[in-house]
Write a structure and sequence with these properties.
The protein has about 500 residues and is of the alpha/beta class. The protein contains 17 helices and 9 strands.
């Protein structure tokens, strides 16, 4: 009898364990389906906010209730596209025939009294021309011994058919407009020019190498800033020593604050996600670092005593994933956490135009009490939530990152999340969907340099093609540090802005 009872207990434990495992797998499957087919937006709609407040009021008597009025639907009038006044105009004048310029009633010639105008946008497709460099030669007519040939500026790629303008066009098309090189080859073919994709790829590598001095100066300028963002994303490189073609490499991004005096974005390719990469990229830096929860940043922060800021967008994302596992139409604990986090973001929205001192005071007065309530809710929730389900994982992440997440209260200039870095890296992620991989490590390094220039130019309000054309024209002839610095995007605003 005792054996039967023991066996029964063992079977019950096995069944409970399997049921728990089934629940975890169902939750994971639901999450993967949401990632694959569902909306990726993390914005909260107006009708979701009252649900969060309702959940908060039901589970926490101290939480203040709020009433949100949702306005009725009104149709928005479509905004008419305006045509810039500085665009060149070509006038097409329509005249009456000589017969129609005579009054049909009394035969009197008609007088012009005005006109009606209608403007249309027109476009001229890409036009290709040949730049023919002619170097004049001179000789002394007396001695025939003194010969001299006129010099020409150095070119970005010597003895190449690619001009600075063509290179800038190809770079912008690939790294700004996510147009892979093989598609560009087809476009050039329609224009009557046959180019080889391998030649274009080699041009990109050569341009990446040419701009290294400018990249180094951008890096040095970034390390002088008080607050930096950092993030990383996978990239596939086919030909890497000691690695299979399917293995992951990484593109790291270092970014300044958007309102910096010299805003910049720096991409860096590495074959690994090692903590040595942040140490190399941040060598000599002393300030605050905003990053996600990846522990690879711990080494550089501890070694250089950097202030580690946590990302509330990542914490919120965990609870959004947990909320997606709840029964549809029902509120739960994930809603309550999102309600608190949403209130923190609402305060940041109000303070966007404030000075750092004003934002600090506002955070102390309004954000800190919300964080205190969220901490109490977290301590209570973790006691009654299984650590392996989606809500438990979100609560564990919030608890583990808490000391970093609340650091933004200490300074009004500190950001609340790492969205700046994520937005900087998004163009690379979108381009990766089209070109899928880099052929070589040289290609990946060149891509990092060219992405850096384009995204930094955009941050400084420059048109990427015009900026790149100037860089590729002037940088080969730059001989001093001052000439290189003159090509930094924030120093080109008065010329190209």
């Amino acid at each position: 009898m005792a054996d039967i009872v023991q066996e029964n207990a063992s079977l019950r434990n096995q069944l409970a364990s399997k049921n728990q495992r089934i629940t975890q797998l169902e939750s994971l499957l639901k999450q993967l389906r949401q990632q694959r087919f569902g909306s990726t937006s993390e914005k909260l709609s107006a009708d979701q906010v009252p649900l969060f407040d309702e959940a908060e009021s039901e589970t926490d008597d101290d939480a203040s209730a709020e009433t949100v009025t949702v306005p009725g639907h009104t149709r928005r009038k479509q905004k008419r596209t305006s045509i810039p006044a500085d665009l060149p105009r070509e006038e097409i004048i329509y005249e009456l025939s000589e017969v129609d310029q005579i009054c049909p009633h009394d035969g009197t010639p008609l007088n012009p009294i005005g006109e009606e105008t209608h403007e249309q946008l027109d476009i001229i497709p890409a036009q290709i021309k040949v730049l023919r460099h002619i170097r004049k030669k001179y000789a002394c007519p007396c001695c025939q011994q003194h010969l001299i040939t006129a010099s020409k500026p150095k070119q970005p790629i010597e003895k190449s058919i690619a001009s600075p303008g063509l290179l800038a066009y190809i770079i912008t098309s690939k790294y700004c407009d996510a147009l892979p090189l093989y598609r560009q080859v087809e476009i050039f073919k329609r224009l009557g020019i046959v180019l080889d994709r391998s030649s274009l790829a080699n041009w990109m590598i050569r341009c990446g190498e040419l701009t290294q001095s400018l990249i180094n100066r951008i890096h040095e300028q970034l390390l002088e800033q008080r607050i930096l963002h950092m993030d990383e994303t996978p990239v596939q490189v086919l030909n890497e020593s000691g690695k299979t073609a399917q293995s992951k490499s990484y593109m790291w991004v270092l970014s300044s604050l958007r309102n910096s005096a010299s805003p910049a974005v720096l991409f860096h390719y590495s074959a690994s996600r090692s903590s040595d990469i942040p140490k190399q990229q941040l060598a000599g830096y002393h300030g605050a670092l905003m990053a996600d929860g990846y522990e690879g940043y711990r080494g550089v922060c501890d070694q250089q005593r950097l202030i580690r800021l946590g990302c509330w967008a990542h914490a919120r994302r965990k609870f959004i994933e947990a909320r997606q596992q709840q029964p549809k139409g029902k509120t739960g604990k994930a809603d309550q956490a999102l309600s608190y986090i949403q209130k923190l973001y609402n305060i940041e929205r109000e303070a966007k135009a404030f000075s750092a001192e004003q934002r600090y005071n506002l955070r102390q007065q309004r954000s800190k009490p919300i964080l205190d309530k969220l901490r109490q809710w977290l301590d209570k929730t973790r006691q009654h939530t299984p650590p392996k389900n989606s809500l438990g994982k979100a609560a564990q992440y919030l608890d583990k990152q808490w000391s970093r997440l609340i650091c933004y209260l200490d300074d009004g200039a500190y950001p609340i999340d790492n969205n700046r870095a994520e937005n900087s890296i998004r163009p690379f992620v979108l381009g990766r969907k089209n070109w899928l991989f880099s052929q070589s490590q040289k290609g990946a390094t060149a891509s990092a340099n060219l992405y850096s220039l384009i995204e930094t130019a955009k941050l400084n309000g420059l048109e990427p093609y015009a900026y790149l054309k100037r860089v590729l024209t002037e940088l080969p002839n730059a001989e001093t540090l001052a000439q290189v610095d003159a090509l930094l995007p924030w120093n080109c605003k008065t010329v190209l802005g």
